[in-house]
Amino acid sequence: MRTDTRIVNSWNEWDTLQEVVVGTAENACFEPTEPGHRPQERGLSEPRPFPTGPKPRELNEKAEEELTGLVSLLESQGVTVRRPAPRDYSVPLKTPTFEVENQYCAVCPRDVMITLGNEILEATMSRRSRYFEYEAYRSLVYKYWDEDPLMTWSVAPKPSMADDMYRQDFWTWPLSKRHEEMHNFEFCVTQDEVVFDAADMARMGKDIFVQESMTTNRAGIRWITRHLEPKGFRVHPVHFPLDYFPSHIDATFIPLRAGLVLTNPERPINSGEEKLFLANDWEFVTAPQPLTGNDEMPRYCQSSKWVSINVLSISPSKIIVEEQEKPLQDLLCSLGFEVFPLPFRHVYEYGGSLHCATWDVRRDGVCEDYFP
Ligand code: NVA
After folding, report:
1. Which residues have C-beta atoms less than 6 Å from ligand 1?
2. What is the pLDDT averaged over residues 301-309?
């Protein structure tokens, strides 16, 4: 099938990027404490309650400046860039099954939205404060829906997010219990309802790898499998047992081009799950340590130092990397990539970097079988 007239068409994380949504820090709020999330301020000798409501304007402005820099870089490479619609994230939510004091932001479209070939899928989400985050992208989805008659659009079933959907003692488990449960892959969300964030999926053509995590449970993976396999995809659950708080695969296991995955040295893939890659001559390349340690991450950032490897591919040979991550840039250069360094440290505040802050709608290319 010709793909040059399609608007929605993206089969993997690396083909040449043609159209993308870049997130916004406008109106971003602090992420609330809720059963699925216990945010903590960094660098305190005595813990204190995490702030609520809008984030300081200065933080949002600095992040927005970097996001705008990403827009300019992508446009200079011929990519069409769209932005989310403005929303007020300070509005509290009350549904029949939960209440939350404010919402979060639209910095990370990747967490919510995913393009799977010619389909746009909206994830269920796993946290209350992110329940309605899809609304920031709805006007764009309608635009694509109007312009591309072959596009399909799916919305995963919304979970109740009621108290009993969560394992509320998860946060206070002692290390021994945590260790035991991590190997059972049991986290803060129970298995009773379908729950997943889009960012737990990595797309490699016909094969979709889904991380079981704090934000994606086994029922979620079952739903994704039953939804995608009749369309010709193969869905593979993957696990990284040394990550005690796994959430979103794109700081752990990052496909860079056909046959090559960037891996996190502190989060090896579960024994046995590497076999499919090795049997198909894929290579794993180990990421260097980030230049910023966990202690130096932005004060309200809830992600680890490994957002350093949350890179964005413009094509199989061009890649955007955070400006200060020189060792990673050098590694990628040695692998034949043209590296585009870009300042993005202020976006870390919102839990992600270049891959998280984007949602690719169109890349050239078709569905390939990289694991025949
Ligand atoms: N939750 C991940 C970041 C995902 C982009 C981490 O903290 O490493």
Report:
1. 247-248, 250-251, 303-304, 306-307, 310, 352, 356
2. 97
